[in-house]
Amino acid sequence: MSTVWNQIRYYITGLYFPKIQPIDIIEILIIAGLIYFCMLWIQRTRAYSLLKGTLVVMVFLVIASIFQMSAILWIASSLAPTLITILAVIFQPELRKGLESLGTKSFLSSIFSFDNGQRNERFSDKTITEIVRAVNEMSDVRTGALIVLEQNILLTEYINTGIILDSELSSQLLVNIFEHNTPLHDGAVIVRGNRIQAATCYLPLSENAQLNKKYGTRHRAGLGISEVSDSLTIIVSEETGRVSYAYMGNLTTGITASSLREELHQIQKKNMKDREDRKLPFRKGQRWTR
């Protein structure tokens, strides 16, 4: 025991504890705050998924270093400059938006208000009932619709492409928005919490080559937004009246009212489980029934 104690005392006495000045504490707090707000900003964008993938690669390299996998370490060191350039290209949209936000007047307010708590807001049971009712009515009369339900990844860039409404969601309002020959019927409606944020929004189109040619621009847009965010998009076909939803890059077609309601409840409770057929790009369901 005396030998162990002597070793511990030797290491303790050999440690160097620098003298901490008040300016050092302020500097540490500033750096910690910057890291926190950067992580918070990344979590609100699709860069969060890319960052997690990057961390997986870094963990793999650490394991390779521990076990002295020389070939893998040599490849990693040789490709390091190229990988930095690749990461800059991948994160370019997010980096550009972040730098642009520094010049806006709402930058500080967005940091301290955290979007007024809307990011964590979940739609209520009443909102689910209103959505299902509106989708049911539009399906019966074959009114095309595209309804995007925002989740953790904010869709502000797509909201800004449309007409801001910021109104309480109701089935009557949704039906009126997508009514034929109305100013707001073209494009997507984006829902945040229990409110319709905007209408006539432009969405990115999916480039999935496996998408059946019978699906038009509305389905391709619904699938496209699900590929770049964690949103759930409800699509009503104008030609057939069939209802589909896109989520996590998958398109589920011909769903029933009960299936849609159940999917919305799973999103609401934030406990959606991975389906066994998630690897399949598309899944056929039953026809839409009330």
Pick out its properties.
290 residues; disordered C terminus; elongated; YojJ-like (1; alpha+beta; single chain; eight-stranded mixed sheet
Description:
- The chain has 290 residues and is an alpha+beta fold.
- It has 2 domains: 18-113, no CATH class; 121-284, YojJ-like (1 (3-Layer(aba) Sandwich), CATH 3.40.1700.
- Helices cover 50% and strands 14% of the residues.
- It is built from 11 helices and 8 strands.
- It has an 8-stranded mixed beta sheet with strand order 2-4-3-1-5-6-7-8, sandwiched between helices.
- Helix 7 crosses helix 9 (171-177) and helix 7 (125-140) packs antiparallel against helix 11.
- The longest helix has 22 residues, at 22-43.
In brief:
This protein has helices at 2-14, 22-43, 47-66, 70-90, 92-102, 107-113, 125-140, 156-159, 171-177, 217-228, 257-269; strands at residues 145-149, 163-168, 188-192, 195-201, 232-236, 243-247, 250-253, 282-284.
For the record, what CATH class of the largest domain applies?
Answer: Alpha Beta
User: Low-confidence stretches at least 5 residues in length (pLDDT < 50)?
Assistant: 105-120, 271-290
**In the CATH hierarchy, what is the architecture of the largest domain at level 2?**
3-Layer(aba) Sandwich
CA(first)-CA(last) distance: 77 Å
Q: Which series of helices and strands comes N to C?
A: HHHHHHHEHEHEEHEEEHE
- Side by side, the strands of the main sheet go 2-4-3-1-5-6-7-8
Overall pLDDT: 78
Give the helix level as a range of percent: 40-55%
Helix/strand/pairing class, anyone? alpha+beta
DSSP strand count: 8
Radius of gyration: 25 Å
Range of strand content: 5-15%
Quickly count the domains: 2
Estimate the global geometry from the Cα principal axes: elongated
In CATH terms, the superfamily of the largest domain is: DNA integrity scanning protein, DisA, N-terminal domain
| Sheet with most strands | 8 strands, mixed
Number of DSSP helical runs: 11
CATH structural fold name of the largest domain: YojJ-like (1
